[in-house]
Amino acid sequence: xxxxxxxxxxxxxxxxxxxxxxxxxxxxxxxxxxxxxxxxxxxxxxxxxxxxxxxxxxxxxxxxxxxxxxxxxxxxxxxxxxxxxxxxxxxxxxxxxxxxxxxxxxxxxxxxxxxxxxxxxxxxxxxxxxxxxxxxxxxxxxxxxxxxxxxxxxxxxxxxxxxxxxxxxxxxxxxxxxxxxxxxxxxxxxxxxxxxxxxxxxxxxxxxxxxxxxxxxxxxxxxxxxxxxxxxxxxxxxxxxxxxxxxxxxxxxxxxxxxxxxxxxxxxxxxxxxxxxxxxxxxxxxxxxxxxxxxxxxxxxxx
Length: 303
What we know:
Layout: H1 4-10, E1 13-15, H2 18-22, H3 29-36, E2 57-59, H4 81-92, H5 98-114, H6 118-131, H7 136-145, H8 152-165, H9 169-187, H10 191-203, H11 208-220, H12 224-237, H13 241-258, H14 262-276, H15 280-292, H16 296-302
Parallel strand pairs: 1-2
Helix pairs in contact: 4-5, 5-6, 6-7, 7-8, 8-9, 9-10, 9-11, 10-11, 11-12, 12-13, 13-14, 14-15, 15-16
């Protein structure tokens, strides 16, 4: 069993100074030190040299040590040491380093989230957003923090920003589909939400969220022709012949009952028969169509 002397010998304390914390290329050092509390985890990447001994520790500076001489700083009631340190670091970052300031504000926002202060987190994330022209991490965090139903407009702002800047088409389709969902949550299915889902499908034709969203929007806004065309596209995407056949049956019903186009309706039903002629409901839909339109020749062929 180790004695007190052995225990002290195995411990190493690395004391950080303000120069370690605010020097260029070390913007995340405060956050890393707060999370790691281990000198071994601060070697190399963060430029702090210390032997990775067992139970090595990191001694953080006081918040005031980060500030320029003469600058004022007052700890806030209930604020943890970690949050105070990160808040001081925001003030210490060079005003001409917008990226450094953005990262400092984001780390402060995360600390506020950890402490359950969502308003402070939103304020810090918003400050990060304003530091640079395009701050995807800040907009993504603000989107999450604006998750309440009464903040849909705020969520839309951040989702639209992300959709307009992302380079990958599939990721952009996700954000566009999310925009459509938020528009629906705000005011129900609409022409605007259908347009957002349509933009997503133009980038990713099999996007599940956009496919279901645009169908609901077309139905709610009585865009029967668009809905019929959409069901036809869905049938083309379906991997199962029976599922594709039933989508054509639904399309036929729309063409007949909503658009009054019995010829196009029959063509859709004939396509369904080709795909799954042995499926009872498909065949029954064809019989019903023949009876309704007094198409005796087709009825006889079906029977």
